[in-house]
Amino acid sequence: MTTSTDRFAAIRHLAETRVLTDTVKIYIPGTLDPDTWETLPDIVLWEGPGMVLPDRSPDMTVTVQDGQSTPVTETGRYRMFTPVAAPLATLEHTVTLTASADPAAVGRKWLVDSVERSSVPVLRLTWLTYDTTLNDGS
User: Fold this and answer.
1) What is the torsion angle, in degrees rounded to the nearest 10, for the CA atoms of residue 11, residue 15, residue 18 and residue 19?
2) By CB distance 3.0 to 4.6 Å, which of 28, 100, 103, 128 could disulfide with 78?
């Protein structure tokens, strides 16, 4: 007899192998050591399968009379999915894609906003904020 736990394990395995096709890194960015003036390395919490998706329509732009397009907002909300077994990201963490089917997404950085909890966890959902100041203004 198949139990609900067995079914969720099967669904979780399918989601992790078929949906989480990118590689995400959750880390605390390196800081400046005030004594040596050297930048300390990032502290990596976890790196593994995941994906990052926008949770909104693209930023709206306003075109003024001189033809220049100006973004209305420079931040956005995103969702990161990781395996349930991955450690929980917290507000002190930054997220980046280290491998993706979209080469333009590799290296982009997001700040952790919050983590969702679920009574039927298949994938872990973490809310992220995209900030252009972390990504060379783009």
Assistant:
1) 160
2) 128
Which residues of the chain fall short of a pLDDT of 70? Answer: 1-5, 56-75
| Site of tokens 């994906």 | 51
Gap between the terminal Cα atoms of the chain: 53
- Distance CA(20)–CA(46), nearest Å, equals 15
Rounded to an integer, what distance in angstroms lies between the CA atom of residue 46 and that of residue 88?
A: 9
Per-position b or e across 96-130, b if 16+ CB within 10 A of its CB: bbeebeeeeeeebbbbbeeeeeeeeebbbebbbeb
Tokens 């050591």 correspond to what residue? 33
Residue found by looking up tokens 């399968």 in the block:
49
DSSP string, 96-137: EEEE-SSGGGTT-EEEEEEE---SS-SSEEEEEEEEGGGTTT
- Per the CB < 8 A criterion, the answer to whether 28 and 100 are in contact is no
Q: What is the pLDDT of residue 27?
A: 97
